[in-house]
Specification:
This protein has about 260 residues and is α/β, with parallel strands linked by helices. The chain has helices at about 35-45, 60-70, 85-95, 130-155, 175-195, 210-215, 235-240, and strands at about 25-30, 50-55, 75, 100-105, 160-165, 200-205, 245-250.
Length: about 260
C-alpha cells in the first residue's frame, strides 16, 4: 500500500490553457451595393469584420460580394428591407457568422414610387403610394430589422447605426416625404437608445455626398463638387471605435478615426 511518503509531489510545470480565439465581429449593412453603404463595408472589411450585406440590385451586390470576399467572410443577400422574409434571412445570416455586433440601417428611398429624373414632389402633390413606400423603406424596415437583430446586439453589447439626413431637421421644399421619414427614424433611434442601454444607437447625418440618391434629388445637375461617401467613413469609425454615447450626430462635427486599437 502506498503511503504519503511514497507519493511524489506533482512538480511538473503547469501549462496555462490556450486562450479561446475571438471570432471576428459581424456587421449587417443595408444599402451596401453603392454609396456610403459600400464605402463603410470596404472599411470594415479592411479591419477584419465579417459582413452580412444587402441591397435591392442583385447584380451590383454580387460585384461587391466578389470584391470583399477576397478580404473577409461575406454573406450577400439581395432583397428589400420592406420584405419580412428577407429581413429574417439577414438576421439568420448574421447568427450563422457568430452574431451581429453592428447593424447599419443605410438603405433609403428618396420618394418611393415617384419616377426618377423628376423634381421632388411637394407634399400637396406627393403620390400616397410613394409616400407609403418612403416610410416603409426609411422607417419601418429599419425598425423591423433592428427588432430581429437586437438579441444578437444585446449579447455582444453592440450598436445600431441609422443613417439620417439634415432634411430630418431642416425644412427644404420638395423634401417633405424624405425629411419626415428621416425625422421619424431619428426619434425612433432616440427612443431605442433610452430603452436598450448599454446597446449604442446612433443616428448620423452624413451631409451631402456624391451618390446616386443625391443625384436623383437634382436630376441633370452637376454634383461633382459634393464629397465622396468615403470621406464620411472615418467619422462613422470614430463612433464605432470610441463607443460614443448614443445620440444624433453630424458627421462633419465628428473627428476622423485615425487608427489604433478597436
Amino acid at each position: 500500500m502506498d503511503t504519503a511518503s511514497d507519493i511524489a509531489p506533482d512538480t511538473a510545470p503547469k501549462t496555462p490553457p490556450s486562450p479561446t480565439p475571438t471570432a471576428p465581429p459581424v456587421a449587417v449593412i443595408t444599402g451596401a451595393s453603392r454609396g456610403l453603404g459600400l464605402a463603410l463595408s470596404r472599411a470594415l472589411a479592411a479591419e477584419g469584420w465579417q459582413l452580412v450585406l444587402t441591397a435591392r440590385d442583385e447584380r451590383e451586390l454580387s460585384v461587391v460580394e466578389a470584391e470583399l470576399a477576397a478580404v473577409t467572410k461575406v454573406s450577400a443577400l439581395a432583397g428589400s428591407v420592406v420584405d419580412d422574409d428577407h429581413r429574417e434571412r439577414l438576421a439568420r445570416a448574421a447568427a450563422a457568422l457568430g452574431g451581429a455586433s453592428l447593424l447599419v440601417n443605410n438603405a433609403s428611398t428618396l420618394n418611393g414610387y415617384t419616377p426618377g429624373g423628376e423634381p421632388l414632389p411637394r407634399l400637396a402633390d406627393f403620390p400616397l403610394p410613394g409616400l407609403l413606400e418612403t416610410f416603409e423603406v426609411n422607417v419601418l424596415g429599419p425598425i423591423a430589422l433592428t427588432q430581429l437583430v437586437l438579441p444578437q446586439l444585446r449579447e455582444r453589447t453592440g450598436a445600431v447605426l441609422n443613417i439620417s439626413s439634415d432634411a430630418a431637421v431642416e425644412a427644404y421644399e420638395g423634401w417633405g416625404g424624405y425629411g419626415a421619414s428621416k425625422a421619424a427614424l431619428d426619434h425612433a433611434s432616440a427612443v431605442l437608445a433610452a430603452e436598450e442601454a448599454p446597446v449604442r444607437v446612433w443616428a448620423v447625418d452624413p451631409g451631402d455626398m456624391r451618390t446616386a440618391l443625391y443625384q436623383e434629388a437634382f436630376p441633370g445637375e452637376d454634383i461633382s463638387d459634393r464629397p465622396l461617401p468615403e470621406s464620411v467613413v472615418p467619422a462613422l469609425l470614430t463612433l464605432l471605435h470610441t463607443r460614443a454615447d448614443s445620440g444624433r450626430y453630424r458627421a462633419a462635427e465628428l473627428p476622423a478615426y485615425g487608427g489604433g486599437e478597436r
